[in-house]
Amino acid sequence: MQQGKHAVQSRLLAWFQRLGEIAHSRERSSGRPAGTLDAQAALLLAVQGFFGAAGALSGTFVPVFLWKTSQSYALLGWYTLTQYVTSGLTFWLAGKWIKEHNKMNGLRLGVALSGGFYFAVLMLGEQAKAYMIALGVLNGVAAGLFWLAYNVVYFEITEPDNRDKFNGWAGFLGSAAGILAPWISGIVITSRQGLGGYRIIFTISLIIYGAAVILSFWLRKRKFGERYDWLHTIRQLKERGNPWRRVAPAIALQGVREGVFMFLVGLMVYVVTRSEKMVGNFSLITSLVALGAFWVTGKLLSVRNRKLIMLIGVIMISAVITVLFFGFNYTALLVFGIGTSLFMPLYTIPMTSTVFDLIGRTEESARQRVEFIVMRELMLTAGRSVGLLAYMAVVPRDDSPLAIAMLLLAVGAMPIAGWWFIRPILAAPQQTRT
C-alpha cells in the first residue's frame, strides 16, 4: 500500500516536472503557427480545468445546500448579491496589486480562498444559513482574485488569431468538468443521509483546489505593469466616440442574465424534483450538449462571422426559455437546458473574444489591460446586481411557475439588446497588438 502511494506520488511529480519543462522550453515569440496555442496557454487551460472541476463538483449544489438549510429565497438572494458585489469590488481594489505586483500570487490566492469557502461551509453545516453574508463575501473575494488574474494572464498569452480557439477549449473543458462532476455529486449526496454527502463532495473539492494551486507554479511569472489607474472606467465611458461606450452596456446586459441564471436554474431543478441526483443528471446531459457545442463553435467561428453567429446565439438562447410557459416540470427544464447549452457558445465565445480583442487593439490599450479587465467585471457586476434585484423583487413574493418563467424570459432576453449595442464592434476587425 505504501509503495503504491509513493509510486503515484512519483508519477505525479514527474508529470508536473514535465509540464514545467514544456512550459519553459517555448516562448511565445518562437514562431507559433497562426491560430495555435502554446504550452503556457495549455497550462492556463489546465489550471482553469482544475478550478472548474472543483466548482462543478460542489458549486452546482451550493445554492441547493443553502436553500435546504434556510428554506428562504430571499436569504439566498442576499447571499448571491453579496457574492456578486464583493467580486466586483475585489476586481477594482485588487487591480493595483495584480498590475503592479505578482499577478500569479493573486491567481493562487483566489484558488486557495475558493477552497477556504468550501471548508467554511463544510465546518458550518446547517449553521451556514446564519453566516450567508459572510460566506458571500468570502466566495466573492475568491472569485474576484482568481478571475482577475486569470483574465489578465489569458490576455497576455493569446492573440486575436488564437483567442477564439482558446475560448473554445476553455468552454470545452468547462463543459467536460460539468459532465461527470455534478452527476457524481448528486449520486453521492443522495446516497447519504442528512448532509453527509455534501461533506464528502466539499472535501474532494478542497483537494482539487490544492492541485490547481500546485499546477499554477509552472505558469511563468508575468511582467509587472505601470501604475494602476483607479478612475480608468469613468474616463473611458465619458469619452465621446469611445467604443467602450457601446461595449460596456453589452457586457452589463450579459451580466443581467448571468445574475439570475447562474444559480436559479439548478435550484429550480431541485425544487421541482426534490432530488440532488436529478440535479446531477440535468447537469450531465446539458454539459454533454455544451461540450460538443463549444467544440464545434470554436472550430467554425472566425472574426469575419462573429456578428451573424452571435445574433443567432442571442435569439436562440432567448427563444428556448419560452418552453417553460408550456409546463414547469423536469422535462421542460431539461429541454430548456439542452437548448441553452446548444446555443450559448454562439453568444459567449464571440462576446468574450471581441472584448479582449478590443483591449489589445493598440499598444496603449494593451498596457491598460488590467484596468480594462476590471472595467469588464464592473459592468458584469452591475448587470448581475440588476438581475438579482429583479429576482428578489419577484421570487420571494411569488414563486409560482409562471412568475419564475416570466422572470427568466425577461432577464434571459437581455443579450439581444447587448448584441444591438456591440454589433458595430463585431463587424469591425480589431487591430493586433504589437
Q: Please, what is the oligomeric state? A: single chain
How does the major sheet shape up? none
Q: What is the 3D shape?
A: globular
**Percent of residues in beta strands?**
under 5%
CATH topology-level fold name: Growth Hormone, Chain: A
The radius of gyration computed from the alpha-carbon positions, rounded to a whole number of angstroms, is 21 Å
Count of domains: 1
CATH superfamily: MFS general substrate transporter like domains
Organism: Paenibacillus cisolokensis
Pfam families: MFS_1
Keywords: Membrane, Transmembrane, Transmembrane helix
Subcellular location: Cell membrane
Account of the 3D structure:
With 434 residues, the protein is mainly alpha-helical. The protein is built from 17 helices and no strands. It has helices at 2-25, 39-58, 62-70, 73-100, 103-124, 132-157, 163-191, 196-216, 232-238, 244-273, 276-300, 306-319, 330-359, 363-367, 369-394, 401-412, 414-427. α10 (244-273) crosses α15 (369-394) and α11 packs across α13 (330-359). The relative contact order is 0.14. Mean pLDDT is 86; it is low at 1-30.
Strand and helix map with partners:
Layout: H1 2-25, H2 39-58, H3 62-70, H4 73-100, H5 103-124, H6 132-157, H7 163-191, H8 196-216, H9 232-238, H10 244-273, H11 276-300, H12 306-319, H13 330-359, H14 363-367, H15 369-394, H16 401-412, H17 414-427
Helix pairs in contact: 2-6, 2-7, 2-8, 4-6, 4-15, 5-6, 5-8, 6-15, 7-8, 7-11, 7-13, 10-11, 10-13, 10-15, 10-17, 11-13, 12-13, 12-17, 15-16
Pfam family, one: MFS_1
Main location: membrane
Organism: Paenibacillus cisolokensis
